[in-house]
Amino acid sequence: MNKLKFLAAFALIFTAFNFSSCDNEPLDSAIDPNPQPSGCVAPTSFQASNFIGTNVNLSWAASTGATSWEVQYGPTGFAIGSGTSVFSETTNVTIPGLVTTNTYHFYVRSNCSESEVSSWIGPISVGTSTGGNTSGDYWPTAINNQWTYSMNGTTNPPLKMIGTANFGGRTYYKFSPQSGSGGSSGATGVTTWLNKNNGVYNLKTDDMTINAGGMTGTQTGFEYIILKDNIAVNATWTGTYSQTTSLTGLPGMVQTVNYVGKILEKDATATVNGQNFTNVIKVSIRREISILGMITIADEEYWFSKNVGVIKSILSNEGETFESILVNYTVN
């Protein structure tokens, strides 16, 4: 159980080591409300992202044998079979026409043939928000922009933007691969991407290879919203994503992270590493991490300075605190 607890915090700790190329959190397996035995395998890594206005983007990882997928959604707590179904032949879909004041549950399953489907995975919960127009650029995106952070007194390699790619019709900026280690944990070549869309900042992390407490394996990537600069102080956003952790000698674990982001301050000032920053937005993110019935809470705070990027972050998890501060930066 101690090793499971360690795994639940692994990615969070990795984030602290490399500032915020994302946090690689584990979490509880999604529960199928309508299980049905089948040789058709359910998809994994189901997540929602970029929920702006009345739309939300959903994505998942394909399983062997699947030829298409069915997404079903409805108001929070709806019964499978009573929701709205959307069919897709790709592993992502955009759901339009949501009501901005409502919260929704989403499920997905694989279709392997006309007569064979997998069990459902989900739900993931999404609350939409209309927001407003962006209030500035709080994480400048350009090739060769870079930021160097010190975590608990140890300076890490620069976090540098080295390229771009298109995912789901959106442009993401790629950060240089990062590596982290802490005690007996480590991850190598972790790649993170940043997308901005009218004041909404999404961080996407690719699959990674991990060494957690002496156990080696892989963990699938995820995406979440780290900032909305277009909403007011005390406004919040919510999201859910799932991951699959596969460790040598152990069965794969599907995990789900529920998070809530909140704007704590806007137009603030902050002094970091002896330098004064203005036009600062302070954000909190609380993640509920569950694995095999065990719940872990991780609290994060981020300070974003206009036309600079993240100048400070604090992660608190299981009695440990990791503070990253900006040492130097170059933006174009």
Automatic annotation (TrEMBL):
Domain Fibronectin type-III: 42-131
Name of the protein in question: Fibronectin type-III domain-containing protein
Domain of life: Bacteria
Keywords tagged on the record: Signal
Signal peptide stretch: 1-21
PROSITE patterns assigned: FN3
SUPFAM superfamilies: Fibronectin type III
